[in-house]
Amino acid sequence: MPIYSSDSDYQNAPAPRLFGRQRPLYSILGGGKLADIILWREKNLSAAILIGVTMFWFLFQVVEYNFVSLICHISILIMLIVFIWSSGATLAYWSPPDIRDLTVPESSFRWLLAKFNRLLLKFCEISSGKDFTHFFLAVASLWILSVLGNYFSSINLLYLGFLCMETIPALYERYEREVDHLVIKGNQDAKKLYKKFDANVLTKIPRGPVKQNKFR
Q: Cα dihedral sign for 33, 39, 45, 46?
């Protein structure tokens, strides 16, 4: 007697994920502060970074602001703020600025250096050719970026990559089931279409007899 699965069993069954992955997207991205920013878990920080990068892109690409001029003007502005703060502290009984609060903590540099070393080790591991699939994908991706670099300026290309990094993972996490369903269904439909094309067209193409080489 055939056994039919109920609708509740179908709904409770785990849906197939894109690329057959087992871990959630948050875990793949590292599960730390960077993953929180990319996936908009901390919306204020993610929005502030997006607005800041957009302002830099607007200044350099649209307004065509010079980088050296920007650094000098920002430094002058910071010096004026610190000067007014220090001078007004004695007149208005403010607390003078603490120079130690303006320094960048060493832990930030250690974190950046650790990330860079991890990226460098991953690059060397892929370049060694132990996993040919990753090696081929890395070379193909770099070649595609080099081709895109001929049509986009470096600033536009970096800004476009940043926008994709800030939006695509968050949107995918929000609509993960729908995207996985559409991609897997599209892949299955493409395979069916190829099989139909192979059966109706490719197999009907006449092929000449294979000539056998005669060795004397």
A: positive
The count of other CB atoms within 10 Å of the CB of residue 39 is: 19
Question: What distance, in Å, lies between the first and last C-alpha atoms of the chain?
Answer: 66
Torsion 46-48-53-58 (CA) sign: positive
Contact 94, 88 (CB under 8 A): yes
pLDDT digits (tens, 9 = 90+) for 177-203: 888 888 888 888 888 888 887 777 767
Instruction: Identify whether the C-beta of residue 169 lies closer than 8 Å to the C-beta of residue 39.
Output: yes
- What is the token pair recorded at 167? 């939006």
| Sign, CA torsion 156/162/166/169 | positive
User: pTM of the predicted model, to two decimals?
Assistant: 0.61
Question: Among the residues of 58-105, which ranges form H helices?
Answer: 67-91
